[in-house]
Structure formats: C-alpha cells, structure tokens
Specification:
115 residues, mainly beta, 7-stranded mixed sheet, 4-stranded antiparallel sheet
C-alpha cells in the first residue's frame, strides 16, 4: 500500500484547508485509515480516524472543526479542516491499516496556521 498526502499549506487562523490522501496498491483490505499530526518537538498524535463499518472519531481539540471522509471509489481519504487555529500547525500524516494489522504511513504534508 502506498499513500500520498497533499493539500497542506499556509493559512491564517480561522481559515480552512482540505487534505487528501491517495491510496494505491493492495487497498481492498484496508479497514482503518487515519490522520495524525506532529508538531515541532512533539510526538505524533491522532487527529481523526475512519474505521470501515464503524464510523469516525476525532481528538477533542478538533471536534466540530475537522471532518474525515473516505471515498472508496476514488481510493481517497480526506480531512476537511475549518476554523483552523495556530495549535493545528504541524506535519499531517495519512495512515492506513489492513486486515491482519499491517500499517502504512504516507510522507506527510505541512500545515501552518498563522495567528
């Protein structure tokens, strides 16, 4: 499985960005996808998850502002980010997990929110 993330950039606080993650390879058995972010000097944290047949989840700080979605026809995972805050700044990574537990990471895309 290969993951290609895109859509990051520089935005002012209160603005919006939409991240995309294109999946290719043996994607038919992917049951879990997620977005993580890593701020400078900090650990990589989960932002939002999408589990096939179960739904979505979000970290508390982004609830009501971010929306994760998966388009199986386009093999795409998206993250719509609204009302962005400076603390949302970081490198955002796409993650996918197949049946059997094998996990894959994308290369990351930088999101910078200026105050």
């Amino acid at each position: 499985v290969q993951l290609q993330a895109s859509g990051g950039g520089l935005v002012q606080a209160g603005g919006s960005l939409r991240l995309s993650c294109a999946a290719s390879g043996s994607i038919s058995s992917i049951i879990f996808m997620a977005w993580y972010r890593q701020a400078p000097g900090k650990q990589r944290d989960m932002v939002a998850t999408h589990t096939s047949g179960s739904g979505t989840s979000y970290r508390d700080s982004v609830k009501g502002r971010f929306t994760i979605s998966r388009d199986n026809a386009k093999n795409m995972l998206s993250l719509q980010m609204n009302s962005l805050k400076p603390e949302d700044t970081g490198v955002y990574y796409c993650y996918a997990q197949r049946v059997g537990g094998f996990g894959y990471w994308g290369q990351g895309t930088q999101v910078t929110v200026s105050s």
